[in-house]
Amino acid sequence: MISTATPTKPKQKKAIEMRICEGKKSMFQVFVLPIPKFAIILCLTLIFPPPAASLKSAVNVWPKPRLVSWPRPLAKFLSANFTIDSSYHQHLTPAINRYLGLVRTEHYHPLITPFVIVSASAPPLQTLSINVIDLAVPLQHVANETYSLSISEAGETAYLTAETAWGAMRGLETFSQLVWGNPPAVPVGLYIWDAPLFAHRGIMLDTSRNYYRVEDILRTIEAMSANKLNVFHWHITDSHSFPLMVPSEPELAAKGSYGPDMIYSPSDVAKIVQFGMEHGVRVLPEIDSPGHTGSWAEAYPEIVACANMFWLPGSNGADQLAAEPGTGHLNPLNQKTYEVLKNVIRDASNMFTETFYHGGADEIIPGCWKADPTIRSFLSNGGTLSQLLEKFINSTLPYIISLNRTVVYWEDVLLNDVVKVDSSFLPREHTILQTWNNGSNNTKKIVEAGYRTIVSSSEFYYLDCGHRDFLGNDSRYDPQTTGQDSKEGASWCDPFKTWQTIYNYDITFGLSEDEAKLVIGGEVALWSEQADPTVLDGRLWPRTSAMAETLWSGNRNEAGRKRSGEATDRLNEWRYRMVSRGVKAEPIQPLWCIRNPGMCNAVQSF
Amino acid sequence: MVSIVSQFSTTKLKEEMRICLSKFAIIICLTLIFPPPTLSLKSAVNVWPKPRLVSWPKPLARFLSANFTIDSPYHQHLAPAVTRYLALIRTEHYHPLITPSVNVSTSAPPLQTLFINITDLAAPLQHGVNETYSLSISEVGETAYLIAETAWGAMRGLETFSQLVWGDPSAIPVGLYIWDAPLFAHRGIMLDTSRNYYEVEDILRTIEAMSANKVNVFHWHITDSHSFPLMVPSEPELAAKGSYGPDMIYSPSDVAKIVQFGLEHGVRILPEIDSPGHTGSWAEAYPEIVACANMFWLPPGSDWADRLASEPGTGHLNPLNQKTYKVLENVIRDVSNLFPETFYHGGADEIIPGCWKADPTIQSFLSNGGTLGQLLEKFINSTLPYIISLNRTVVYWEDVLLDDVVKVDPSFLPREHTILQTWNNDSNNTKKIVQAGYQTIVSSSEFYYLDCGHGDFLGNDSLYDPQTTGRDPKDGKSWCDPFKAWQTIYNYDITFGLSEDEAKLVLGGEVALWSEQADPTVLDGKLWPRTSAMAETLWSGNRDEGGRKRSAEATDRLNEWRYRMVSRGVKAEPIQPLWCIRNPGMCNASPFS
């Protein structure tokens, strides 16, 4: 029996299988066949369309691997002295120790007992032997994450082969999810080949509107690694607080944070970056500017326009000073702005090894800049708001590039209706635009303009939505008969994004094959107006797992049909396993549904 | 400075007058003449739910003695509460997010004692028990006084006292007088423990948080079609076979622990054994008494009208089988032994015609001219008198009277023994129920359902396939979308549209957490602080002394209270950025409140 998880388009899938069988280059990764004889059997068996792996299978890895061969439902026990063999690598070695501890002690009991024969006579598995082809590859965008895992029926050693240490971490996670029960058992006669469809798979977390402790961030990174996500996009600062201690500009956090116990020190950052390395998760910092900078005014009021003003002074939206409470934009006309900002950028690039730097540049609100006298005089002399933004970009982007960073901006910098820059200010080789508005339409606009993009569609990937707005003194809530009218007090990005909404979104929808190549991946986003550590896990998980599978191995089965029906049962199982590992992921169904597969479907499917 | 909530009924005014005659209250009654400014968040008096009457003319406070004690007459349930509050007051050291602008006197003697006086120590914890209390803390005396009609009112006053204390060393406002009593007697949470299981500790934590919010009824929707987690001594097979597993059963000693914990927190534990619908799990032990059990909920190709259940998980007790009543009476008797609460919730919601019609004996009954309404009448008539005979008042969901298709004639539901809980069609159904002469508990799904807005939970749902409609709420939405924000809950008046006489039949309200998409991992965040919003509405109302909605001012206070709940171990969700709390008014929708 072979189960293949497939990429988004059946046409591509066939191509990939051909490449696997030829042992040549796959779509994104160089694929090196570690054990050719396995592959030959695979290529033969690919002829017969396989049944989908059921939940009763002992092979229940999330995200589903791209290719699983497990002809017979056999398993065997792990030796009490089970070990993992590998060359030393400063980040992989701690990961191995962690996984060894997990594999030995987790003893996870699946909700549905696997239908499998655990051989008591076969010798127990003694060793997982890891072979990494290039130990020197750093953790960065498009680092090769391909791995293969083979566990024979009879041998005492299983083999994990990966191009890089980071791919080995992915394989270790897969191995750990294959192990279950007490004593621990693992499926045998198994071969897995796996690699991501998209190189960039992330979570964006906003730590400005509400603060998260370092331990919350570490727990999130660990859960990301378990879901084979590889980018923690850290929206560190915003108008509400500035929680990052920047050594050259210590006043920003001293005055702009929520308090001395709510600041990330350089050693906190180092700890998070290190933890990310040991989990194969890049930590991508965002210092949002020139908008979303009200908190900077606590230390430097002179560089921030419209700070500390009521956000909506008039009766209509045209006068608004910010998209939400918390006003303030850096003033592009003040040289001090760049002095402070370059100190921040330089320190951030020293603290974060990541080669992407996120500059923000979203939601420039005309009313804010217009509230500043120097800007008003610039405008009345014929200047435009877009020229202001161009001046800002031109005064910062070259500096960021000079630090060997690729700059990520939110799409607004190019696509905003009113305040945007000419694309000549945004060199395509150094700039990535992250889309969040207008679903697949803006994705298309960005790639048509020749830019790489990261998809964070607010219609599909915003995890905070659907909780209504957070404003106080809101008379829209007064009517007694409209609790069900979604227009009253709705959050701008209603409704709640269910795991199915997220799972079914194809981030390259509507793009040509060439355009699709510019989509480097996606990120779910948790903006924290109504979130903080008390609810973090439930907001992120298991909905982020839905994106994780889509971006890793796709959301369609071998016939090209959406596999969300079958994914429901698997995601339920994975959610319970995450909970048992200490992540308070929310339930997606009654336990009854898991115990009665298919019975909770919208339509009877068997 | 005096703050009064304006929703006084005639009887409440009489109570006021009576209190004004006591020596404590003379000063208060004098100050009532002067209209007070609203208490701001900078006040050290920030009690949730807001008391009905607070007099605190000068912003003064003083410290609690290191040997502070609480002096109370002995009462078996109050005594543990006193011990608990004493420890909380001594050790909490809560630091408000906004430092109170108040002078803490270092010269005044510290407060040594809270003296509790209770008029009627024998009053049991039951519906309508008097929860009135008054609290006075003088500027100089070493003793503060808490006076209550009953032990349960004293618990409310202890909670208020604990919320007045802040800082390290502990300080408390002085020159303070509070008079307080609830507007509605029934203030509850309904929790469904059948669709997903909750540990006993989750239930206890919830009851403790309820008590801190002066919410007094834990409506425990114990069983449903998905699991039967209650060990019923006379019918042990129901849980043995119908629960999710041996580690997911509430034993009689678990129940006793929960009931006892409720008593020590002034929270009644009201059990619901939903029937005759929502009983699929009973079929594991007794397949012969359950119609349509274990079938796919929506037969392929059928209309919604032909569904077997409103959601996956089919099964209705069969009213034509005598065995049904044998089992059910055993359950009812045991439950009334396990739960001292004098209300018993019988469910009776969502009878789905297709389910009963799927049963051959019922088919033959119907083809002989019987009706579904008659079936339900037979069921009610075979169980309700038995429940009443056990000295219980029966609560049913409104469906039993108001369902379009399957309902009973009101003659089957004696008004003196029956309460109907409304959940559909907001104030319209409330009005229908009270116009029919029944008492009601309001759980409007449009306002009080805490699980809504999370999308539906069905699998294999092609509604999610379109790539351009993530924002169209019609696709895969839950039936009771949208999410009920705390403001939605806070602003709902449960007697909206009723005459004064009709309003008297509204006992109170309950928020409800159905657990298709909830379990212990997310319990606290789903319940809190949104339940606090209802708690204040039902305790002291949602309007200021000018009769205007006070939700703007409530935002800041609820923020503060939410943080205090978190510090007490309840993972209540945040309602705003911390920035909003630090910058009062700046996160409002419009600038002036």
Automatic annotation (TrEMBL), chain A:
Reaction catalysed by this enzyme: Hydrolysis of terminal non-reducing N-acetyl-D-hexosamine residues in N-acetyl-beta-D-hexosaminides
Statement: the UniProt record of this protein carries the keyword Transferase: no
Domain of life: Eukaryota
A Pfam family matched in the record: Glycohydro_20b2
EC number: 3.2.1.52
Family annotation (CDD domains): GH20_HexA_HexB-like (cd06562)
Entries under InterPro entries matching the protein: Beta_hexosaminidase_sua/sub (IPR025705), GH (IPR017853), Glyco_hydro_20_cat (IPR015883), Hex-like_dom2 (IPR029018), HEX_eukaryotic_N (IPR029019)
Residue ranges of every copy of the Beta-hexosaminidase eukaryotic type N-terminal domain listed in the record: 61-178
Domain Glycoside hydrolase family 20 catalytic: start-end pairs: 198-554
The UniProt record lists the keyword 4Fe-4S: no
Record keywords, A-Z: Glycoprotein, Glycosidase, Hydrolase, Signal
Family: Belongs to the glycosyl hydrolase 20 family.
Protein name: Beta-hexosaminidase
Source organism: Hibiscus sabdariffa
Source species taxonomy: Eukaryota, Viridiplantae, Streptophyta, Embryophyta, Tracheophyta
TrEMBL record, chain B:
Residue ranges of every copy of the Beta-hexosaminidase eukaryotic type N-terminal domain listed in the record: 47-164
SUPFAM superfamilies given in the database record: (Trans)glycosidases, beta-N-acetylhexosaminidase-like domain
Domain Glycoside hydrolase family 20 catalytic: 184-541
Signal peptide: none
Magnesium listed as a keyword: no
PANTHER family attached to this UniProt entry: BETA-HEXOSAMINIDASE, BETA-N-ACETYLHEXOSAMINIDASE
Protein name in the entry: Beta-hexosaminidase
Upper classification of the organism: Eukaryota, Viridiplantae, Streptophyta, Embryophyta, Tracheophyta
